[in-house]
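Lecture 7 notes: from sequence to structure.

We start with a single chain of 277 residues. Read the sequence below before looking at the structure.
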Amino acid sequence: MGPGSLRSVLTISTVNVNGMRAAAKKGFVEWLAASEADVVACQEVRAEASQLPEEVVAPMGWHAHHAACSVKGRNGVSVYTRVEPLEVRVGFGEPEFEESGRYLEVHLPGLVVASLYLPSGDVGTPRQEEKERFMAAFLPYLVELRGKAEAAGAEVVVMGDWNIAHAEVDLKNWRTNRKNSGFLPEEREWLGRVYSEAGYVDVQRKLDPEGPGPYTWWSYRGKAFDNDAGWRIDLQVVTPGLAERAVSARVERAESYEARWSDHAPLTVTYDWEPPR
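Now the structure, written as tokens:
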């Protein structure tokens, strides 16, 4: 392996931390220190770098990049890489969302990795309208990103909290959520277009086509976690060439409710990586 190159066994993790300041105190720092991942993406950081401890802003052994939201205390995404990036991009060119802390793209040798926090939405409110505008602008960018990557001989992984459950097997209580944001027919159709029109692959579902789950988010309300009444909304969505190299995927679900440091769990995928020639 040459200097600045990725390992032949490539491990990538993504997790919505639900507030990095709280997660850092409850176990994220220890999880990151113990991780064997080569790339880690975080969402819903909800803090600027100046508000975070050094072991989160610049942990030993990592190149860390953060994109905060212009509205303090909201959104925020991060990417940690073992290899120094060739390029870092905040946003995807849509003015409304450039400073929203929802998209951070890092270019590595032969691989583009992006941390995505897609708006959660709320039916009948401006939040849902924002989500719809984001989706409308983001799909063409995904097509463009894949095209540029292919031309450069690179692969792409867009990972994070997509805030959409694509199919009935992707959430426990799908019948009662058919009119709720995250499982609306038009949202599910849009995510289907990411796979069909843009040509990306949901790696976890490729490796485990049947389901149900495995879920990555459980509400803090009631007994959702204990009853595994969750949603599979944290995804690694990748180009076909990278999907073919996926070896395993696992959700790092906490052993107990008390052991959680977020209402989401990390999704970790291992790939057999062949560096570009």
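The mean pLDDT is 95. Keep this in mind for problem set 3.
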